[in-house]
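ugh finaly. both done.
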Amino acid sequence: MAADLDMVNLFIIAGGTLAIPILAFVASFFLWPSALIRVYYWYWRRTLGLQVRYADCGGYRFCYSYRGKPGMRPSILMLHGFSAHKDTWLTVVKYLPKHLHIVCVDMPGHEGTTRTNSEDYSIQGQVRRIHQFVETIRLNRKPFHLVGTSMGGNVAGVYAACYPSEICSMTLICPDGIRHPSETKFDNHLQDLEHSNYTLNIPLIPTTPEEMEDMFKLCSHVRFKIPQQILQGLVDVREPHNTFYQEVFMEIVEESSRYALQEHLHLITAPLQVLWGKQDQVVDVSGASVIAEILPGCRVDLLEKCGHSVVMERPCRTAKLILEFIILQQDTGGGTKKSS
């Protein structure tokens, strides 16, 4: 009888032990989805072996994650897009070799990096801050491979033009900053915003779960089924920063920033790879032909059934193409080729 009671107690304890994390997950999902999202990113970073660090320079703090150490292959610095963060790259890092030295930094004012004033949020301002970061962590002790997507692609291209000796090669993913010949759905939104003197809601700054879903539809060709609770959690995570996002948005659509990449393309000397989703509704894929016309030696890869969020929609393909390009540059001493 005593043995039976012990067995019952064991099952009760075991059941209770399992029930606690399950109940915590369910409660987080329905009551605190934003907390669940933060835990998700934390867990994924740990699983992939990424460590979060801070770099301080003259009262300014950069937050970044990294994996690996500098080795035979060049280090990789990854710049995310507007209103995103360093964890944007987790999907791609998952498919890159663990021995590569990878650095993903929060762009100026984003996530854990210091938030200052509008001067830092223009494309040139962000370039200056990213260069400060590179010098602070001494990433430029030898040339590195630079990757940027969307706004980060605009910054990356201008960076390569301004600091050519620091870059051995680079990858631009659906970069902003190009006068693309064809208009997109987002261009139409932007025209409406300009006509309203920016009183309408900005599609890239959602304030409700419905607007968040619309943003995903705008940025992605692949249709992800996202539960309402998670959409609400994403809104909750972003909402405290919406005023900041509006400030950044106004800076990057200013004339001095809007076409900064195109104005600096002729100064880029590093081997260049361009990745673009064919169904991009934010920055039209015709921008790739503009880049190729100015830099005919660049390599262009257009991805089928893919929108603006290449990193989220085609992470494995993106990682494979970046790695192949880096290896090609080392094996050929910098020669590039163009493909489609």
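ok and the 2nd:
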Amino acid sequence: MEPAAEFYHMENGGDQSKKAAMGKDSWNNGIRTAQNMSNSLLRKKSDPLLVSKLRFQMLRQFLANLQEVILGTKLAVLFPAIPLAIAADFYKFGRHWIFALSLLGLTPLAERVSFLTEQIAYYTGPTVGGLLNATCGNATELIIALFALYRSKIHVLKYSLLGSILSNLLLVLGSSLLCGGLANLKKEQRYDRKQADVNSSLLLLGLLCHMLPLMSRYAAAPGVLIADSTLQLSRASSILMLVAYIGYIIFQLKTHRQIFDSRQEDEEEEEEEEKAVIGFWSAFSWLVGMTLIIALLSEYVVGTIEAASESWGISVSFISIILIPIVGNAAEHAGAIIFAFKNKLDISLGVALGSATQISMFAVPLCVVVGWIMRVRMDLDFSLLETASLALTILVVAFTLQDGTSHYMKGIVLCLCYTAIAACFFVHKIPAPLDQTNVKLGLKPSTGISA
């Protein structure tokens, strides 16, 4: 028995070939998201012969899994940042160092979570596997947002989620179109507009839900307090956004999955990669462990962001909107650009638009609902500058993608739009919202739906 097959057999028991075939059939009947395909470009194959000569069976199994999970990515060089961040916190180093090391440590963890959810999907069947891959693509941003919510740092929460949307729509998509256009000057670059139209519609729906609380605040008569009504409107809108996202998942995984199944044209090319390399329980255990580490580093990031802002002389808004999304999603972004180089724009668009849609229609309203449960006044009012930036970004992207073709000039426009927004938040020192002032003064929100 070959070493790889032996490790699989040890963990899962029974006939290895039968279970492998079953897992692959389930996967082929499901859907592999563009985010997973993007992250897979940064993975590298390990050699099971390196641990096959060890004497103890359990030790061989553990080291084989360790080799696949830790050393199976080209970003493994960043893993030392994790213990360094923990050590920096334990020995009370500069808080800006804790922030920087934690941010670097989150980069490989985000890619590994994608890998582990993909491994679990081999064993759970197409529906559960597709649901895992469709909802865990932005787990890192969601965990950071929930910790910011727990600490009542609503401004950090809103900035980080907004930054993730802007980064995906302008930086990732723009870089992909630019690099793909330059690498394929003599080829006509085309993509399927159906997927882009679905995501654009959902982004516009999310934008409407963001604008309504803002417009109601500006439309109120002078001296009229509308904080409670704005909060109620935000919570009602968030429930509608989550319903729309559930419909999007059903649309993506069941009724119209052929639109999103971007791996059909590359099925033969990637057939060797579509095999489980670790067992279900190992993948589940590693996923739980890495989620806990992400939670720890996210707490470091949220707790030290103001110290990093003061030390570096950069506003919290710029760090949250620009730096955190760029570093946190570096693996996924690099994969999207590589696929654009290969003239596979459908996958690149799936990464950028899919991630932006997931943040806008799932992460943001989920934080509002969780804040409702925790009695934290989280709403959808992102203030005028942030909402206007989001609105103009969605409109620019929608116009850019309307004809189904691409060239490098479209990428230049999107990248310059992102640069202009980054410059705006770099020079504009945005104060914390009023609800943060209330939290600091110890004012308690009212209970019930009007809280």
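summary for the 2nd one i guess: The radius of gyration is 22 Å.
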